[in-house]
């Protein structure tokens, strides 16, 4: 059972704090997030996240288009830093378009005959945004100066889940309890 972009949209709307809008590509959904460290190529502290379905709704991709640009003499340093971030973390991987220098972080997985839950969307999106924001100083320095220095990172939070993920999961649990109390059970969850 494949899912449709409409199914996906209804699922995204269940994630507290997510405000979906039409994505920049046909058949996609977009979400915009403010960041603390990350700056887009225009210098704005926002990260656009796009959610797309592929393979007739049997595959999902969550990515940040043109999150960074790898051009010039430090291209290899940026790409090496991306590979190192990918190795050090869960979820995130990077794609590189040699033609225009686009570097896009992404999270993707097969849906096949399953579905996608609001918790999965929340975890994947928050993971992508959090990791890009946290590792941006390292990536930006690699792109600008050719130096890869993970000492630039703020200390990792040792409190378990990222606060954004914890808040989202608590809100989803409260919504699920409210739905059960109203007799809607879990059948309405996409």
In short:
The protein has four helices and seven strands; from the N terminus they run αβββββαββαα. The chain is of the alpha+beta class.
Give a description of the structure.
- The protein has 190 residues and is α+β, with helices and mostly antiparallel strands.
- It has one domain: Yope Regulator, Chain: A.
- The chain is 37% helix and 20% strand.
- The protein contains 4 helices and 7 strands, in the order αβββββαββαα.
- It has helices spanning 5-13, 75-88, 118-145, 163-181, and strands spanning 21-22, 28-34, 46-54, 59-63, 68-69, 93-96, 102-110.
- Strands 1, 2, 3, 4, 5, 6 and 7 form a 7-stranded antiparallel beta sheet that branches.
- β3 and β4 form a beta hairpin.
- α2 (75-88) packs antiparallel against α3.
- It is globular and about 60 Å long.
- Mean pLDDT is 87; it is low at 186-190.
Q: How would you state the average pLDDT, rounded?
A: 87
| Main sheet specs | 7 strands, antiparallel
Give the % helix: 25-40%
Q: Termini distance? A: 12 Å
* Helix/strand class: alpha+beta
Number of DSSP E strands = 7
How many helices? The count is: 4
Cα-atom radius of gyration: 18 Å
CATH topology: Yope Regulator, Chain: A
CATH architecture: 2-Layer Sandwich
The H-and-E topology, N to C, reads as HEEEEEHEEHH
Show unreliable segments.
Answer: 186-190
Shape: globular
What's the number of domains? 1
As a percent range, the share of strand residues is: 15-25%
**CATH class designation:** Alpha Beta
């Amino acid at each position: 059972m494949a899912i449709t972009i409409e199914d996906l949209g209804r699922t995204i709307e269940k994630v507290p704090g997510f405000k979906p809008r039409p994505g920049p590509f046909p058949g996609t959904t977009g979400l915009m997030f403010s960041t603390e460290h990350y700056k887009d190529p225009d210098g704005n502290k926002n990260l656009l996240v796009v959610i797309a379905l592929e393979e007739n709704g049997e595959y999902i991709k969550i990515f940040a288009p043109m999150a960074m640009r790898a051009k010039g003499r430090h291209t290899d340093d940026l790409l090496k830093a991306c590979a190192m971030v990918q190795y050090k973390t869960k979820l995130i991987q990077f794609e590189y378009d040699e033609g225009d220098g686009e570097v896009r972080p992404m999270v993707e997985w097969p849906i096949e005959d399953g579905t996608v839950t609001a918790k999965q969307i929340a975890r994947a999106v928050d993971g992508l945004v959090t990791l890009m924001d946290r590792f941006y100083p390292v990536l930006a320095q690699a792109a600008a100066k050719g130096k890869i220095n993970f000492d630039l990172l703020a200390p990792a939070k040792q409190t378990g889940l990222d606060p954004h993920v914890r808040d989202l999961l608590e809100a989803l649990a409260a919504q699920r309890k409210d739905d059960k109390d109203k007799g809607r059970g879990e059948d309405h969850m996409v």
